[in-house]
Amino acid sequence: MNKIPHPLSDLPHLEPVAPSIWPRRLFHFLAGSTIPTAILFLPESIVEWMLIIGIIVAVSIEVGRMFVPNLNDMVISRLPLFKDAERDVVTGATFLTISAAVAYFAFSKEIVVLALFFLSVGDPLAALVGRWDPKFRVFGKSLIGTAAFATGAIAAGLIVSTHPDIPWAWWIVPGAMIAATVELIPFPFDDNITIPLATAGAMTLLAMA
To answer: What is the mean pLDDT of the chain?
Structure first.
């Protein structure tokens, strides 16, 4: 029997790209939940200005990192939101700020809040749980981590739906599963862009059915 050529034969069992760190994942959860929490509880005018200012600040930091090496070193080494792999690329935090703003102005309030909470809860869970799964891997990512993402996202949907502005709907569960699937698939774009926008778009279509 012919052996499948490398690297395809090793694809289901690839090791994680980098180990997860509890403080960073906790910070990811807290920081990532700030935007949907603000959307949920603050007036629209304040949220709009927060997002606009957030984009200006994020882009300014990216430009500063590009031209001031010391600033880049400080941001990457001292702030737990950033990874060393982001030293020479746009950070996930900037992508999240941009995608949250796009989603906020493009989709309904309940859709945006759910999509962003799916990301802030599910993504850290997938990383934390997935690091303990060395065998069941697809595209270098853990299937058990993907299941943890979906479970956490569904739980987040249940909790958020207790708010009167976010009524429970049948499409929340498939929306959470779509978010987990998007995280698993190796798209050429950052998860902080693909997960909230793809999930919000899918839930919008499901809500129209």
So the answer is: 84
